[in-house]
Task: structure prediction
Amino acid sequence: MKRFIWICALLLATAPLTVYGEFATLDELAKAYSVDTCRTCHAKVHTEWTSSYHSQSVVHSLGGIRNFIVVGLGQEWKKPVNRDNLMRCMACHAPQLAEASEGLATQVADLIIAAVDEKDGKKKDAAKKEIAKLNVNCIVCHNTKIILEKNLKGDPKPNVYYGPTGKSSPAHRSAKSKEIQTALFCGQCHGIYTPPDGDIIQCNTLYGSYQEAYRGNGGAETCQDCHMLAKNRGHKFPGAYEVEIVKEGVDLDVQAAAIKLTPGKWIPTAIVTVSLTNKAGHRIPDG
Result:
């Protein structure tokens, strides 16, 4: 019994903390949102996540975020590169940036630009390595983004991890969330995003096509059904970058026929008909 208590105490001491504060350095922010200790109890899930694009949510989208900063904010809208404006992208790509100081937010913007535009290869790689410390991880999904019923339940509670079962853990406080099992939970980022100023930002239309073309025609499965539960895909969340799931979502049919282009004279010619049938629950391609 004493040994169990010591193990629980150790887990609690090393469990990731959901800290609501302001961080001055990227290392401080990354440490506060580190999920390294999640491996202690959730090794399989952690391994799956590390191979997912959620774990690369910033570095995988560097080009688009860089264009938002340089072209959008800098050239078209003439707006400052500050934390609030960066969150128009980062609310989905790295929500923890909301806890950064203004100085750190500016530093993050500079790193993103350097990771794309820097001519020196070593400096470019160094910038990319630094910015990779920000991503969508366990804390982001199981705490930060549990805000679908904010008006009814309030903000997510610090240091509480929300999941489908709410199963208790010796390492942290837990709570049950029905919302995390819904397509709407994924739609917070994979669809229309509304920042605090009430603007509408639409980087993709995936959730919209899911609701209108799939659910509107009687489809009943959720994002999680296909991208997590099917074939035990878990927290890898395979999508358009995985050949296996693309084959499941798109039927390919190719018909080819040889013909004579001119009567009486053979000119090697073929008519090729390619048919693609979307079997997924949303528009393809999308994100």
Q: What stands out?
A: The chain is about 40% helix and 15% strand. Strands lie at 160-163, 173-176, 192-193, 201-202, 250-262, 265-278. The longest helix spans residues 102-117. Residues 5 and 170 are 9 Å apart (CA to CA).
